[in-house]
């Protein structure tokens, strides 16, 4: 069975897309693995709080797909639209190298296709 990861499309107050740089030097949406007893929304709100130290409300689902993280290792990804609650002063956690804020039309090249597709759906691009 594949692990399940819940990811969120989140924008800064200026409308920039929030991405996280992982250990593989790929940009990804914030979020992470769901824990037993959590709903997808609870998981995503918790993960974004842990990774960015910001609060969000979790909206509608955007997409779900099987992602090959590295050859032979797959993760089931579900993405959701998110909205900031309160201020936006993000702090990078130990789980990522850095936080990136990108114009919706200028997403980085090293952003996997599934995350890119979820951003396009969320923002109506």
TrEMBL record:
InterPro entries xref list: MutT-like, Nudix_hydrolase, NUDIX_hydrolase-like_dom_sf, NUDIX_hydrolase_dom
Cofactor: Mg(2+)
Keywords: DNA damage, DNA repair, DNA replication, Hydrolase, Magnesium, Metal-binding, Mutator protein
Domain Nudix hydrolase, residue spans: 1-125
A Pfam family of this chain: NUDIX
Catalysed reaction equations from the record: 8-oxo-dGTP + H2O = 8-oxo-dGMP + diphosphate + H(+); 8-oxo-GTP + H2O = 8-oxo-GMP + diphosphate + H(+)
Protein name, entry field: 8-oxo-dGTP diphosphatase
Organism: Pseudomonas viciae
